[in-house]
Automatic annotation (TrEMBL), chain A:
Pfam families: DUF2170. This is DUF2170 domain-containing protein. InterPro entries: DUF2170. It comes from the Bacteria.
TrEMBL record, chain B:
Residues 190-219 are annotated as: Disordered. This is Phage shock protein A. It holds the Pfam family PspA_IM30. It comes from the Bacteria. The lineage of its organism: Bacteria, Pseudomonadati, Pseudomonadota, Betaproteobacteria, Rhodocyclales.
Length: 138, 235
């Protein structure tokens, strides 16, 4: 099985080309599982993390933490996220370790072009989601 | 409990705990062993099934052969009787009876093989279901663990590099501000571009003696000449 780094080799160039020359950097994150951070120029605050297990490649964008959700609107937010899920292309809302995320899952043998497409969709969707859902945040 | 049900229990627990023990190494090993065992059982059952199915077909052919043979012998017996060969007919009847006994035996065996085929097919189906379930279970547990471990690495890394996760609102504002800055810069560049091109035009007009500056020079010159003329008159 290829390592994650081998699998997505050249992702920065593919992304940059698709984003009209925007600077894109890849940074491996040390730890017990493979994680690579993707930073897109102009969106440094919303990095995308790519991680792989034997069953899938996951692209994750952290949106906000539990504490940032307005207590009085929490239930409404959760329902809204569930309702939005099917309509958002390629990305879904989730929650990992008390943090709300937007993620895209790909088959473990995804090509670098597939990952690039998912990362771009995720980045656009995340920015869009932050803007659209900020009324639910403190 | 369903696989998702088990994952749910894990996810409801503390995150730290999950990172460390979603996959109880022992439990995983047991599942993996069960998967291997079930796979072996499937392989064995499949090869057994081919054997039994072959025997089933053989017995079916044998039954067919015996039936035909009985008809042939009975016809011969009838012929012998017709010709008054009672002793020969008797002998043939003995063979028919033996055939019949063999046919009964083959039919019993055939039914038995059919039963075994059915049982083996059920067994294979059940074992394959089990493999699928265990594989899903191991995969889900591993995936959950992997995701939580990744999150831990990311949090640790953010802590270690001194950078902090900024709030969503702040992130959004920063990105928007940067975007606005860019838009402003582009608008400014555009305005500047327009201005320089406008100035260029005015310069060319002035050079041709048209427009503000050329006009002013002429007017000033006229005023001066008028003053000079007036001075000469006074003198």
């Amino acid at each position: 099985m290829k390592s994650l780094q081998e699998q997505i080799a050249g992702l920065d160039d593919v992304l940059s080309a698709r984003l009209g020359g925007t600077a894109v950097s890849l940074q491996p994150i040390p730890g017990s599982v493979p994680v690579i951070q993707v930073v897109i120029g102009g969106r440094e605050e919303l990095p995308i993390f790519i991680t792989a297990s034997e069953t899938q490649v996951l692209c994750i964008c952290y949106l906000w933490s539990d504490e940032e959700v307005r207590a009085d609107k929490r239930a409404e937010l959760l329902e809204t996220l569930l309702a939005l899920n099917p309509s958002i292309p390629l990305s879904a809302f989730g929650r990992i370790d008390k943090r709300f995320v937007l993620f895209g899952a790909l088959a473990s043998d995804a090509r670098v072009e597939d990952v690039a497409q998912d990362v771009i969709a995720l980045s656009d969707n995340a920015l869009d989601a932050l803007e659209a859902l900020s009324a639910y945040l403190v | 409990m369903s696989v998702i049900g088990k994952i749910l229990t894990l996810v409801r627990g503390s995150a730290r705990e999950i990172g460390e023990s979603v996959v109880d190494a022992n439990a995983t090993r047991i599942y993996e062993q069960e998967i291997v065992d079930a796979r072996n059982a499937i392989m064995k059952a499949k090869s057994e099934l081919t054997g039994v199915m072959a025997k089933e077909m053989q017995s079916a052919r044998e039954i067919e052969r015996l039936r035909k043979e009985m008809i042939r012998l009975e016809n011969l017996a009838v012929e012998a009787l017709d010709k008054g060969e009672d002793a020969l007919a008797e002998e043939v009847a003995g063979k028919v009876a033996a055939c019949e006994a063999e046919l009964e035996e083959q039919s019993r065996a055939h039914a038995n093989y059919a039963l075994q085929v059915g049982k083996l097919k059920e067994l294979i189906k059940a074992a394959e279901g089990k493999v699928r379930e265990h594989e899903r279970e191991v995969a889900m547990a591993r995936t959950t663990e992997s995701v939580y471990r990744a999150t831990r690495s990311i949090s640790d890394n953010i802590g270690a590099t001194g950078s902090k996760l900024v709030s969503a609102r702040e992130s959004l504002e920063r990105i928007k501000r940067r975007h606005e800055d860019l838009a402003d810069r582009m608008a400014a560049a555009e305005a500047l571009d327009k201005e320089t091109s406008t100035r260029g035009l005015e310069q060319r007009l002035a050079e041709a003696g048209i427009g503000g500056d050329a006009e002013r020079r002429r007017a000033t010159m006229e005023r001066i000449r008028a003053r000079q003329a007036a001075a000469h008159k006074d003198a």
